[in-house]
Write a structure and sequence with these properties.
about 250 residues, about 20% strand, alpha/beta, single chain
């Protein structure tokens, strides 16, 4: 696609997964602070070019493996993120923290997500569009799928789900270098949302939400060839923070 697309458009009918050849979440304080400042300084009537987002539609085998353990909502298509993982991960963490922060405000305690409004949308609408979808069911079991995540065998998959998105879990969640970065990003946004609220109130949170979803613009590129996806990953990622020898070897294997 040649036209720029906002995250509100990119998240329509798409599920994003980080494939196993990808590195983990590598952003630390410097990158998070730059991202946050860009959002705060962005005028509500202007757009911010956020870069190229390269996706690869999951093949039939990947989709079949996916539906064995997760639910694929009707009309949704599964994509692997080739380039743009750091930005999409950051967006997903911040979006979850925004909904958690608003839900935790004193005036919203005891309310359901469909009773809490942020801007022109309820928290339920925001959650369904950007974070997690629940399968309609009359049964007692609750089936849900996160719109962004890692492939199931990646240690970051459980960490993102249970420690960042705070899904209840009684088991052990393993930490790695990359999961520590996920935790740092979560805490970073928690602290900065509180600071923003103290200075600008709920209006400041609403402005941040609108800029995040409507004003950050991506060039979307879908990779067709199964071979080219690995070449693209290696080339694109080496433009920014260099891949380690281990990450290069993992990709080539």
């Amino acid at each position: 696609a040649n036209e720029l697309q906002s995250l509100s458009v990119l998240f329509q009918n798409r599920l994003f997964r980080i494939p196993d050849y990808q590195r983990g979440y590598a952003w630390r304080h410097e990158q998070l602070a730059d991202f946050w400042e860009d959002l705060l300084n962005l005028h509500e009537d202007r757009y911010h070019y956020t870069g190229l987002l390269s996706l690869k539609a999951a093949g039939r085998e990947s989709v079949e493996n996916f539906v064995k353990v997760e639910w694929l909502p009707s009309g949704y298509k599964l994509f692997h993120v080739v380039d743009g993982q750091q930005r999409l991960t950051t967006f997903s963490i911040l979006m979850f923290e925004i909904t958690s922060f608003v839900r935790g405000l004193s005036e919203n305690i005891g309310k359901k997500d469909d009773e809490i409004v942020l801007g022109d949308e309820t928290l339920k609408q925001i959650r369904d569009k950007y974070i997690v979808r629940y399968r309609p069911s009359k049964e007692l079991d609750i089936v849900k799928t996160y719109l962004f995540g890692y492939e199931i065998d990646n240690p970051s998959a459980d960490y993102l789900k249970y420690k960042v998105f705070e899904e209840p879990f009684g088991g052990t969640v393993f930490e790695t270098y990359y999961t520590k970065n996920l935790k740092y990003a979560k805490n970073f946004f928690t602290d900065n949302l509180q600071t923003l609220f103290e200075s600008e109130g709920i209006d400041g949170i609403e402005r941040l939400y609108r800029k995040l979803t409507l004003r950050l613009m991506f060039n979307l590129h879908e990779i067709e060839d199964d071979y080219d996806v690995f070449v693209a990953f290696e080339t694109m990622n080496n433009r920014g923070k260099k891949l380690t020898n281990l990450e290069l070897l993992k990709n080539r294997l």
